[in-house]
């Protein structure tokens, strides 16, 4: 084999060695950053509970690739500095005491629950039917007031104000009982249940108290709305 061939082979060998070495060096910091992100996410999962019937999603923000972190020879330490609400964005402090570095990692937390939402734009005055409604997973921090899990809870109720497609239906968007509606008044005591007809004197949604007038006695009583067109009175 000629000297020129030897030189060519040595050049190729050292070239490949330099390539693999540079690749290893450049990938090591990224591996460290990935580990920091993963550690922050797993820590958040231990301190934030998944909601019953719902879902929990946790995602750490991407860290600056220019950040150089040496490999930690011990398990990374995690904490939540300061007084933070464990909803929305949480900042996790990830540190390595042996290497003397620490990183603040923003982590996005979403708690999702099944909610009844508008399957299409709903106009004021519309009476809700099954085709108007669909159940979707909605982030809990965007939910206010009375919300609903099952379409059957509100089918037949009337829309009080316009609702956009995809918006969760809230108690103040509808009236399960509207003023001047004919309602069933349910009353019970000592195992005796009485059902009579009456008239609602105001609007209301599920669980709200309104005044109703008994159709026969004309007596006005307070009752709790327990369904569409239904009011329960406790004596």
TrEMBL record:
Main location: periplasm
UniProt keyword annotation of Signal present: yes
Limits of the AFP-like domain: 115-174
InterPro entries per record: AFP_Neu5c_C_sf (IPR036732), Flagellar_FlgA (IPR039246), FlgA_N (IPR041231), SAF (IPR013974), SAF_AFP_Neu5Ac (IPR006190), SAF_FlgA (IPR017585)
UniProt-listed Pfam families: ChapFlgA, ChapFlgA_N
UniProt cross-references to SMART domains, sorted A to Z: SAF
Superkingdom field: Bacteria
Record carries keyword Iron-sulfur: no
An individual GO BP term: bacterial-type flagellum assembly
Any single Gene Ontology cellular-component annotation: periplasmic space
Keywords, ordered alphabetically: Bacterial flagellum biogenesis, Cell projection, Cilium, Flagellum, Periplasm, Signal
Subcellular location: Periplasm
Its biological purpose: Involved in the assembly process of the P-ring formation. It may associate with FlgF on the rod constituting a structure essential for the P-ring assembly or may act as a modulator protein for the P-ring assembly.
Family per similarity comment: Belongs to the FlgA family.
Protein name: Flagella basal body P-ring formation protein FlgA
